Amino acid sequence: MWEAVWYGDVDYYEDRRPLDALIAAVPPEMQFSLSKKRTAKEAWDAIAAARIGSDRARKTTLQTLRKEWENLA
């Protein structure tokens, strides 16, 4: 399964099972958008982007939270 998710170099039928597992494992609000992905790798990358975000976005969020914390103190 992880070969399909990490590398994406498996055939169509070997990719269906991991893709279905990923779709079943996410919250219902993400299932529709993931069902439009062609491969398990694309779905995994979409989950990672939605859950982790880019490094720049995380740093910006961290700075915002720090400012809010300082304003509370």
TrEMBL record:
Naturally occurring in which organism (per UniProt):
Paspalum notatum var. saurae
Q: What is this protein called?
A: Uncharacterized protein
